[in-house]
Amino acid sequence: MSTTTVNTESGTPHVAPHGAPRGGFRLPTVDSPIAPVSFGRLVRVETRKQVDTLAGRWFLIILGLIIVATMVIMQFFSGGDHSYGNYLAAAGVPLGIGLPVLGIMSATQEWSQRTAMTTFTLEPRRIRVVWAKVVSTVLLGLGAVVTTLALGAVGRLVADLRGAESAWAFDGWAIAGVTLMMVLYVLNGLAFGLAFLNTPAAIVAYFALPTLLPLMMLVSWLQTPYEWIDLSMTTSPLPMGAAMTGEQWAQLAVSVVLWVGVPLAIGVWRVTRREVK
Amino acid sequence: MIQVENLVKTYGDFTAVDDVTFTAEAGRVTGFLGPNGAGKSTTMRVMTGLTPATRGTATVLGTPFDHLQNPGRHVGVLLDASAQHAGRTGREVLSLGALTLGVGEKRVDQMLEVVGLTSKEAKRRIRNYSLGMRQRLGLAAALLGDPKVLILDEPANGLDPAGIRWMRDLLGTFASEGGTVLLSSHLLHEIERIADDIVVIGRGRIVASGTKEELLRPSGCLVRSADDAALHRALASKGLDVLVLPNGGLQVDADTTVVGQVAAGAGIPLVELRGADSQGLEEMFLTLTSDDARQETAA
Asked: B37's torsion region: left (phi>0), alpha (psi -120 to 50) or beta?
């Protein structure tokens, strides 16, 4: 074989004379070896996808502004002289309402904006994407809690500057409780998003069902079950900082299974089987 | 290489893909041609693991798609350029892809350059993109992982003539470097110019496949008569294959002598009789799919 022959004998019809690919294109190559898609990378991607859209970014900005506004409003009551825990609780209200929507959107946007097509061709093992969304949603919830702790502290510091006299009453258990509550709420949102795979339906269901639940109180024999299945009731002791009783933990567990576990299971079943169009 | 074997996909009573078998070879551009609703997109979705097959198999590089490790490094997929979040920037879409694939941010710049999107355009939200820009972005995303196989559904849609020429050059280069390209289209002229092999699908079934040269070789003859329907019956009764051409006349798989004799025997005056010339792919496409295509009334 002559040493000057360059790939003219390979038999493929498109092989161009050496050095001059057809059309004058040169496609740059990737030299790094092919490694499997790691779970860590999937989590990074899913976390980024929750905040890199115009809607996602504005949602977080507005949520932040509402919390700031809440801190300001707190200053007008009793001269702002509240414990740190009260500031946290006040900030937690808009957060608890708003943040789960990001969880919902993380699941539903794949289908409404049809990005599932890209997501699942890059990672066909869809269950891994679902778990990456679970982890990224928890991370986002934790990030929001940290932000809230900071904003709450700023609120209380302002009150201190204005001469607040009560103690900060910094309570580690209450903070742990708020954190757990927020994580459960965002998971609740994500699970609803996964179960419905449709933004309006998931959001309506997420907000409407819990508000309808207290109607159970009107029926005497439903009052006891109600105490076990209303997530907002069962999570309400968490931010108090007081030790929860065994029954309270059991009620929390049952309601979490109902509002997070069941929709998550339905969601996993649907996402892994659904045809992507 | 892409191999599809006896692929069937049904939706209830409707069979979208009916026993489809074909191979897209490495180093060649394979055109997947068919009218709308013929099953092209469904077949491509099965190939890429987005739609489960009812029966049959589809493998890419010898492996079912969902068994590939980091599939984006092996297969570039563009099935719908509009299937992107409208509120994300073009660049962000590529960055997310690069992050998933593990190829680094530099690759994003390279691919933007390859597909001819400026950095200013890449910073815009996709809602402001024309379809042509979305196709370019989609191709950039498909090429991110330096794949060996490209699966592209209607990639020329929305591209201007210069863009179509550019894409042809790009895919030609890709195949010349040993890559496998499968692209679908109903743009017959485009397929004819770019593809080496052609697979024609109609109503879920493969109606023709082979190299472009094979498929474009003339065969049989064309005949028009005073009464095509009667001639059709006469020819069919002699066991000859007859196709009714969409713009009138019949194509017969026999030489002119035989057809002339049949017509004379049946007493049908001929208007035109000639050997089939080298029909363009368009005529072949219309001929092959005229039974299968959705009826379009040419009023």
From this structure: left
